[in-house]
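in:
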């Protein structure tokens, strides 16, 4: 989509949308393609997949930590009930 077409879907100015698109482009989350006088932006699926894989690593770590925390809290609760 062009910046103008993207801006139509948000309650923000075109300048604000362009700034966000610039940041996303710098992060390689979107790609730009020149067609005549217009610039079209496309999602970079490969970069999104890369971020998804990175986030999944942390999700696994957090799930393990929360499981361990649940066990500790359950142990503490059981000890409190035994008193």
């Amino acid at each position: 989509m062009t910046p103008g077409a993207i801006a139509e879907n948000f309650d923000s100015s075109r300048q604000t949308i362009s700034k966000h698109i610039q940041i996303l482009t710098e992060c390689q989350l979107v790609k730009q393609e020149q067609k005549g006088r217009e610039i079209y932006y496309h999602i970079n699926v490969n970069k999104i997949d890369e971020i998804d894989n990175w986030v999944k690593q942390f999700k696994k770590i957090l799930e393990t930590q929360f499981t361990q925390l649940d066990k500790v809290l359950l142990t503490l609760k059981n000890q409190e009930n035994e008193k």
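note: The chain has two domains: 3-43, 45-83.
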